[in-house]
User: What shape does this take?
Amino acid sequence: MLRTLLYPKSVAVIGVSSNSKKIGHTIAKNILSHKFSGKVYLVNPSSKKILGKKVFSSVIDIPAKVDLAVISIPAAFTPRALEECGKKKIPYSIIISAGFSETGEEGRRLEEEILRISKKYSIGVLGPNCLGILNSENRLNASFARGMIRPGGIGFISQSGAICSAMLDWSHKNNLGFSKFISLGNTTALDEVDFMKYFENDPKTSVVLCYLEEIRSGKEFLESARLLAMKKPLIILKAGVTDEGKKAALSHTGSLAGDDTVVEAAFQEANIIRVRTLEDFFNMATIASCANSLKGNKIAVISNAGGPAVLTTDLVSQSFLQFAELKQETQKKLSNNLPKTANIKNPIDIVGDANAFRYETTLSSALTDTGVDACIVILTPQTVTEIDATAKVIIAASKKYKKSVVATFIGGKKALSGVTLLAKKNIPVYEFPNQAVAALSALYKYVSNKNKQKSMGSEQYKKIVVNTKEYNNFKNIFILLATHTLFQMSLKNSLEILKAYELPCVESFFAESAQDVEKINFEYPLAAKIDSQDVVHKSDINAVVVNIKNKDEARVAFASIQKNVFSRMPQAKVAGVVFQPMAAGFEVICGARRDPQFGPVVLAGIGGIYAEVFNDVSLRLAPVSRSDARELLSELHSYPILKGIRGKPSCDMESLVDIINKLSQIMIDFPEIMEIDLNPVMVGEAREGARIVDFRIVF
Ligand code: ADP
Ligand code: MG
Assistant: This one.
């Protein structure tokens, strides 16, 4: 698939113009002037000859087979042109023209028309409203971007035409090479998923760079991203991250699992290298080709200046990288070759008067050390520094030792010639140490996750089945309570569902009247709280009382809770007051939310009424296996507390693992459920289990 689009044997340009200022002219000129290997036909009903070539009045008149039509005419005429492409049996079309859904109602209607015609004739349509495509292998520039891309390993996909232009320009300055360059436009038919699938198996592409604003189908996107990332680095800059979901949330979980947090978790699962700024996008682009030579995170830093070496040391300590412990033999080699003032321990300071030869011997010693996985070479232009010769030494060493070598040439005018030499040979080179460390660290994270995925063979997800009768009962509850907006179930109804999955909810006694309070026969102390579908945060309106020591206090609690709710929220529908034994333990939140793009996600973290303040949570997309759950917990900042510090014993981790695993299953079993909030879950010491004291289901 898509091969014919990218490697057409013949291309028709519909809307070619004799006016050199028109896009239709530029496109024709681009296709004709870069030694494209296929045939080119020009189409325009009102011209006979343009750019020295015969012009056809319609694609229908072209006396040969056409693989690709590039359309650049006013939007209103595109449906007719596409119809003609269909009749001519042209398999692919790029619609460059703008004026579609991005402009309003009329444009949206036109775009629907395009989609309908593309389906009718099975034409693979790229665009509309895009820059076009470039392929460095067959030298096809079917776009209105100036110049040709340099050949290289990057497959580039972008939902923004402006980012395409910027990337092209930047790549010329920085000598970056591309296999294919794709501007997606409005993604009416072909979208990022189609191209990710293509790039997965494209031998010319070793890295995929992707700029996205919108992900239409989360599941499909993740599946193809995951498969692609197993083979080559996939770097995505995702813009337009809003937190719409957060606004509508009816629980702690809802507001903690905001849209961007879910994107983060989803990208992490697919091992996508996520960047957040254009700067990082470009920085990652220059290093990604090193993915194959990077085997570990032990680095050596070589510098001709102390300051930058110290700076780099600080940066490394905050990254996924580590300094390699240099072997005795390496240190001996270094001390034989370096002046006395040099520092032969990592970071290796080869001092200010280092010439290219000194860089060469040091690089060779470091890269032959089996404990060194990669090298960061820092150069500052000093009086005797041989900038170009050092660049050449770095190029030769990286080729010879087949290890990643990242250059940092700090400076401007003087350093520039060396930087250009390095970039031309695809050696990642940066102006500042923080860029080098961040890029190498992100790449290492990718490489190590990729290997982990391979070795783990991921534990199977065990399905917990709730019995059919119960299942149908719950379905009926949902039907009965069904509303069009988010609706939280009462504690009583929530409890029924959770109990069916044997989730460890604390015993609860529902008192509807003052007489009911007399029937409580739990051991004191107790907690009491309001049960109302309208109250989201009970303690906010003083509707929770803890440490109730006796019946008298229980009576008072019942009355005061009713009174507080009535005065603060007179409209609230109250089901009653719930009494529970006081549970002890560390307060954890476990929850789930249905994300509109990625489906159910499950989270866990620091719980209690301050959950949002600490914001220490970790997420996974469902299904979440027990081993996924363990990993999720280990990512929390507060994990050491759960594991027990300062002489405290570890919490009962497995009870949390069990809860997370079951939440994932409930979300899968009941698509009606939008959010589940278990907050807090009181976790006791090992084997003491956990008690869920507050639970809420939103659907
Ligand atoms: P909400 O979160 O709606 O304010 P909760 O039921 O979570 O209401 O109660 C608020 C806080 O009171 C909890 O975070 C917990 O610290 C404490 N609490 C509530 N119920 C119990 C209980 N059964 N045992 C121990 N502490 C409780
Ligand atoms: Mg709570």
